[in-house]
Structures are given as C-alpha cells and as structure tokens.
Design goal:
This protein has 294 residues and is α+β, with helices and mostly antiparallel strands. The protein folds into two domains: 69 residues; 191 residues, no CATH class. The protein is 45% helix and 30% strand. The longest helix has 45 residues. Keywords: Membrane, Transmembrane, Transmembrane helix.
C-alpha cells in the first residue's frame, strides 16, 4: 500500500507490504509529513500568542478609554481578538495531535538502511508502525496497588517488521513500549495531604529468526552457546532467549528515553548474536557431513 497521508491522519498507523526501496521512500515521506505538521503547529502557536497579547492590550486600553467614550469599540476589538486566539489555539492543538513520534520512524529508517543489502530488491517487507500514544485509554493493561502506591500500567506494540533475507531466513522484529505511573498521598506534619508521583518506562525489542531445520540442525542443543554469543550495549538487558528446532527468539529491554541511535544498534547486535548461533549450527552440519563421507 502506497503512503496515504489522509489515512495516516485518521488512523495514526502506517501499514505496508512492499519492496524495501518503496518502504524507505515512504519513511522519508513520513519524516516530511512530521516536519510539516510541526511547522504548522509552531505557526499557529505564534499566531495564538500574538492574538492573546493584543487581546490583553486592547482590553486594558478599552477600560482606560471608557470615560472618553471609545472604550466599547476597543473592548469589542479585544473580544474579536479573544475569538481569534481561540481559533489559533484549536488549530495548534490539531496539528500537535498530527505530529509523529520521531524516534519511531527514525528507528525503522535507520534499521532498513543497514539491512537493505541483506534483503532482495523484490522481496516484500511488511511494516506496521503505530504512532498512537502509549498512554491512550485502550492501551491501559492494569490498574491497582503496588505497595502503598496506586499504579496504572500501559503497553503498546508500535512496530512489527518482517521479511525474508537473501539467505532464506525469515526475519521478524518488534518493539513494545511500556509505561507505569504511580502516585500516593501522604499526610504531612502540617496536616495536609501531599501527593508523590513516580513514572517507570521501558522499550522492549524482539528479534526472531525462522530457519529450515535441515539447513541448521541441532539448534536446540545450542542454547548455552546462544547465551554465550549474546553481545549487547551496556544499557540493554537480555530478558528472553529461546531456541527451538526452527526458530531463535531474543528479547531485550532498554530505557525509553535513550538515544535514538541506540535502538537500531541494539537490533543489529541482537541479529549478529543470533547469526553467530546459526553459524555454530552450520559448523556442526559440516562436521557431520565430513564424518559421513568415506
């Protein structure tokens, strides 16, 4: 599906299945769309500020001119400026909601640029990129108590990307964002309630490789080697590593507010770690063939 800005405005989700060159072109269009929305937001915000200042000045001048008989006219102008401020404010809010989360499309753009050489030009790449806020009501997963804190948890899987690489391996990537908000009210020494708030957030990355068991035999025997092969940035933690006959899955966690370059680099390091396990399996297959030959 070609890039459709109107659909993006209404759904806040980008979906496509296309060759990697077309997906990259769409991502560049997403960047341009985001820049345009940000520019429109700033323009209307400046207009709202100007109308607000002029309305305040007109109101003061109008009050001062009431004894001279011109106050009603100037106060009428102040009212018009207030209405203009309201319109500008609404337009600012509208364009603010249309802005995209930059690190989301930049992650996919940077990642596909690095993976492009490993994807055949005509191989379909399926991408679903969700730009909705993680804290929307539909993304609330839990409400309850954590110790003395009242907690509200949200989760949003905002990226799914899958394709077949040139070596025949099926690749699937995913990103999930989690946020938790905590608050509690305590009675202080003055007899007043004081509310404390905490926020926890994380981004979970997943990489899955599906392979043909006959090409990569004995994968399940390589779980220990898979753990030893894991190489990740210092700020990233391994949360899951699963090896079966035809699949290797790795999941990691990192800070949500990290560098926009860190997530693509983490994805690439996860891929390299998993391919090291596949290389172990290939070596075992070659050793088996060598022993079987007369």
């Amino acid at each position: 599906m070609a890039f459709d800005s109107e659909r993006l405005r209404s759904e806040r989700v980008y979906r496509t299945t296309a060759p990697v060159s077309e997906v990259l072109a769409d991502l560049v269009r997403l960047r341009s769309f985001d820049t345009e929305m940000e520019g429109q937001k700033e323009k209307w915000s400046q207009r709202a500020l100007l109308c607000g200042i002029l309305a305040g000045v007109a109101a003061v001048v109008g009050v001062l001119l009431i004894p001279a008989g011109y106050g009603a006219i100037v106060l009428g102008l102040a009212w018009v400026l207030v209405m203009a401020w309201f319109v500008c404010y609404r337009m600012t809010s509208r364009f603010r909601t249309l802005e995209l989360v930059e690190r989301r499309y930049e992650l996919v753009l940077r990642l596909l640029k690095r993976l492009r050489r490993d994807i055949a030009p005509d191989a379909p790449v399926t991408v679903e990129l969700d730009f909705r806020s993680t804290t929307e009501a539909e993304n609330c997963k839990d409400r309850g108590s954590v110790g003395q804190w009242l907690a509200e948890s949200f989760a949003l899987s905002w990226l799914t990307l899958q394709t077949r690489l040139v070596d025949g391996t099926h690749l699937r990537l995913g990103v999930e964002e989690r946020q938790q908000f905590r608050r509690r009210s305590l009675l202080n020494a003055r007899g007043k309630y004081k509310t404390k708030r905490k926020q926890k957030s994380a981004m979970l990355l997943s990489v899955q490789l599906r392979v043909k068991p006959e090409k990569y035999p004995q994968l399940t025997r390589l779980t220990s080697k898979a753990k030893a092969a894991v190489q990740l940035p210092k700020a990233v933690r391994l949360t899951r590593l699963e090896v079966t006959d035809d699949r290797i899955l790795m999941r990691t966690g990192m800070a949500l507010d990290g560098d926009v370059k860190e997530a693509p680099r983490t994805f690439l390091m996860m891929l390299l770690s998993l391919y090291q396990v596949l290389n172990y399996s290939t070596s075992l297959r070659k050793q088996g063939l060598a022993k079987a030959s007369p």
